[in-house]
Amino acid sequence: MANGSRKETTHGRDWETPPSSFVSGANVTAGDRDALRETGWPSCWKTAAELLDWHRSFDAVLDDDGSTRWFPGGRLNASHNCIDRYVANGRGDETALIWEGKLGETRTYTYHQLRDEVNAFAAALRNLGVGEDDVVTLYMPMVPELPIAMLACARIGAPHSVVFAGFSANALATRLAGADSEYLVTCDGYYRRGTALHLKSMADNACLSVEQDVEQIVVNRLGDDGEIGDARSYADLVADHDGVEIDPVERDSDDSLFLIYTSGTTGEPTLVEHTTGGYLSHVAWTSHAVFDLKPEDTHWCSADVGWITGHSYAVYGPLALGATTILYEGTPDHPEKNRLWEVIERNEVDVFYTAPTSIRAFMKWGSEYPEQHDLSSLRLLGTVGEPIDETAWRWYREHVGGGECPIVDTWWQTETGGVVLSTLPGADRMRPGAVGRELPGIGATVVNEVGEEVPPRESGRLVLTRPWPGMARSLCEDAGWGVRRTSRADGQWQYDTGDNAVRDEDGYLHLLGRADDVLNVSGRRLSTAEIESAIVGVDGVAEAAVVGGTDTMKGSKVHAFVSPESNVAGDEVLRTRVQSAVESAIGSIAAPDSVTFTPSLPKTRSGKVVRRYLKAIANGEDLGDTSALRNPEVVGELESLLNE
Ligand code: 6R9
């Protein structure tokens, strides 16, 4: 292959190597990785904390009293670390944030401009009475005022709680009440596919249904002079406090930086809390080591800031390293299906980070869209959120990464704060379809029902065996050196991730999906992810989701919902190809008993397939509340299809 990339195979599986030009310039080399492993846990995490500016340096890496407090004694401020220190060291005129608006407009903030706006809004919040540790809820779409408000909160030590703008008034009310928050920053509305949606009326309804009085601040996004009643105008507040400087409040390392609800992927949405020192060290170091971010880089994490991925890798990680981050307001296919590639080309993006669900959509739309653009600025690609199958991995590398870019598949959760499993692109080989290994300083293993480690090639539950800096507070507070959902009797620290995984002979982990999604067919446990991976390998298939149907004989029937690529018919020929692909990849036991073709699959608002609705449809059960879905109409269509 060109530019020094090589192909190797062990145990029948391919390795892919990053080009030598990438390796020679990487932030973390194989030598650095080995040195970190040598230093061992928890001391190696000192390297992460050293990426930050501390007002008072920490006394130890990890508290030894069993409380899992990271960097005790240390004091710092996240807004100082993400902004001021770069203005102070002469980089104030470099770009911090590029906003790509939905109607084609763009806005750019240098570090200097970001500091001024964050200062003004921090001063305004303080004037309204927001004090240290008061929770400020941010119910906003992808506008620059969202990261600005996050950083303004961080500046005055007020934890923010961002609520995804696609949530309903009810969901917002639950989150306002759950966080006991008396301040809400929102927008009059925003555009979705060219249509204006009114956010303010949802915010009003939510405020009416909570017990506390809520002070509202409204950003004018629609550009009209809509009534905002008793609420304050964001623009007026910032203008009134123009030029005011607020000293960043020194926070204890363990003080709260923000609250966030889990996305619903890992069970019922629950509120988790992330700390200032541990979280920021973790996301800064992983941005440096996993995303190989340099200060001169432009980084684009396409996730909405309403989710943890946007918090960690669109806001805190890239800004903590002094890089440029892109905030994209639109949808990938509006006005055209080449919109993302146009944004990458125009801004010369170095690192692009997205989810397999998006990559599958790009594949479905066809490679002609990325091919219309010069994507040669890209150095590294990343993926997160779901297992990425080999077909999607190769398509992503070929059509977006020019056949050369290394890809990091990053496994983590809202609860973990930052990436915990991945490859280090400057140090490790890649294996399409495998996430990689635990990062240095992370303990991970695969265990059976009684908590014993299983040998390679046997699947089991993925558990993390040691605390890490980005871990949510509640994970350690549940039970001292908190064991959450553990099955192990000897009291050893263990965090059960709820995901199933298998380690291959080379030590690489393959994620198999949520444990709740496992099928039991004739006494054999089958992973939905494995079956789906075989199905999407079939030419003409864009996406697939597999669920269990009840079968008195076999335990579970395998029911596949398959979304063909556009222009491909969901017919008998495709059905047979799907079935034989699973048969040859896994065995006839896993071959789908039924295949239902559908133009799309039901997804959460964060873009993940929700198998529980498909399961209800396959089994003719009541669907219950489908309001958490982005596309509830799909389940209705599927129901009528199956009842025909
Ligand atoms: C960051 C984020 C967490 C759940 C997690 C797992 C799934 C995330 C993955 C992955 C396979 C990956 N997940 N990354 N599965 N490979 N690279 O997505 O957080 O919304 O809390 O979801 O997502 O099942 O347990 P969150």
TrEMBL record:
GO biological process: acetyl-CoA biosynthetic process from acetate
Coiled-coil features, chain-numbered ranges: none
Species name: Haladaptatus litoreus
UniProt keyword RNA-binding present: no
GO terms for MF: acetate-CoA ligase activity; AMP binding; ATP binding
Family: Belongs to the ATP-dependent AMP-binding enzyme family.
Extent of Polar residues compositional bias: 18-27
Top EC class for this record: ligase
Residues in AMP-binding enzyme C-terminal domain copies: 530-608
Classification via InterPro entries: Ac_CoA_lig (IPR011904), ACAS_N (IPR032387), AMP-bd_C (IPR025110), AMP-bd_C_sf (IPR045851), AMP-dep_synth/lig_dom (IPR000873), ANL_N_sf (IPR042099)
Keywords: ATP-binding, Ligase, Nucleotide-binding
Annotated ranges, domain Acetyl-coenzyme A synthetase N-terminal: 44-82
Sequence segments annotated as region (Disordered): 1-27
Residue spans of biased composition, Basic and acidic residues class: 1-16
Domain AMP-dependent synthetase/ligase: 88-468
E.C. designation(s): 6.2.1.1
Name of the protein this chain belongs to: Acetate--CoA ligase
